[in-house]
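> @MW can you paste both from yesterday?
MW: sure, first one:
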Amino acid sequence: MDLRQLRYFVVVAEELHFGRAAERLNMAQPPLSQAIRRLENDLGVDLLHRTTRRVELTDAGRGYLARARRILGEVDEAAHEARRVAAGAVGHLAIGCVGSATYSLLPALSRGLALELPGVDFSFRGEMLVPDQVAALRTGEIDLALLRPPIADPSLTVLPLRRDRLVVAVPADHPLAALRQVGVTDLADVDLIVHSADRRSVMYDVVLGLFRDTGAEPRIRHEVGETSTLITLVAGGLGVAVVPEPVMVLALDGVAYRPLVRPAVHVDLAIGHRTERTEAHLARAVPVIRRIVRDARHPPR
């Protein structure tokens, strides 16, 4: 199918005059007439009835005009969609978030992305541990991840977002809640609730590293997979937990948060995706997410 002939025919059918149609198409009249003749020859039917005074559509021409308009409309729509895809204006992205990012950033992300990339459909998976995020990025289950380095996988591109200070979540009636700040040595003889070692949590390694650096011995009593469960157990008085500062948005009754000091410790938050992923809508989303995270405020201490 020659789309040019199709467009020529539609214009002639709308004008019912070869001279006006040629002017509208910015071409000479003889080539336009020849193109319509070729179209009729290819179809084996007369689409137009021509006289010296007027041009009229035949019954076949009227039927062909309706279908031609639909075809051209679909072609134009497809071209518009292709340009939008190439510009990164449409698409779908699934974002996996570590626990602290789930609670502190998801509301700002969902609002900000919908505002700045309205044609891109976003879905979110919260409470993911970093090893699960890396595996999901590899399989394509998620497209982007808000995760905590270090990431050893060379197939991933990882860009820094921010540094989060560590705090200690303690039961409100615990003796540590009376302190203005807590040191690692203060936790030496305290029951700890940590993220799961079996699932290779980054925060589990961070907490053990803190004790190792100070020579103190951790007393781990509970291991959990989700940050929300961890804080719930703290609220239940089952122990204390070292968590990134954004977790403070989980302001459960019975939980107090105190800064971790001597020295103050931070953990990084980063955004990661498979390096081979070069879709325009993904490339557009990354700087938007980085800006939203940069502008997001931590909860007040």
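MW: second:
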Amino acid sequence: MQIATPYLMFLGDVPDRLAAKTAYGIVDWRPEWCVGQLRLPGCAADLGIPDLTIAEGVAKGARTLIVGVVNAGGVLPPHWVATIVQALEAGLDVASGLHTRLGSVPEIAEAASRHGRQLHDVRHSDQRFDTGKGTRRSGKRLLTVGTDCSVGKKYTVLALEKGMRARGLDADFRATGQTGVFISGRGVAIDAVVADFISGAVEWIAPAADPQHWDLIEGQGSLFHPSFAGVSLGLLHGAQADAFVVCHEPTRTTMRGVRHPLPSIQEVIDLTVRLGRLTNPDIRPTGIAVNTQALEEGEARALLDTLAAEHGLPATDPVRFGVEGLVDRLVAEFPA
């Protein structure tokens, strides 16, 4: 799907920052697309951008109202419907990452039809995908993989896109989750694709390209996570990755939502190489990205130095310390 920019960010009346994490991700990485935020009374999240009415957002050039929230079950609260209808009536498209389809709400569907506006349910793609074929294709691809879910895979590839472009490299972020689709304006929420077509959907996201072009593919879940390993494996095979970066959060002992222990970085490297060779026999690790938010700077730098020495790979916190070392490794491993 192609989502028209700029965005007016709708936060409803969410109770905290975490409930608006999709909106925060968009503002962090595409601030130039966000003209302002629309909040209902009682909203406890604040993106730090101007509060605007729908009319003010339209006047500033907004083209799409983004429902930038997450909640248990991905439901659309009934008392938000009137605001969404008003946005459609004002000429905005509406995009949501919730599980509830916008078009399943009669008032929203009728308003969109009457005003000729687009409804984008980012979790539900209308694109038809083939099954994955695994045929080698031109271009270069990097995939982020993780010791767990929610360890920074999206932020790592976004930081790499920025860093690689600054070095004159031809690189594009490829979104595989709802927040990433909003950030990119294009992509597929892989966790909502029927299992047989996951690898084919990733081949569609990152097709054959110029030999010097890099597709930087957002990873999902973990090959070791009992809930999400199926999605992670299909993504790995479809990505046909030349390179991968292992993402890690060092304070966890078990994976999120389950009692299984966190795998080691080396275990992730070994399994990713073994399984990734099915579609790219030359797959290799090129770096380690660590979310050090919970660590003091000195402790964070010491940990990164230790990991780099242990694995013979550049290690960094892409948001805190940048991606120069990761880009240097890619340039050295894959010369033009």
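> thanks! The CA atoms of residues 95 and 120 lie 4 Å apart.
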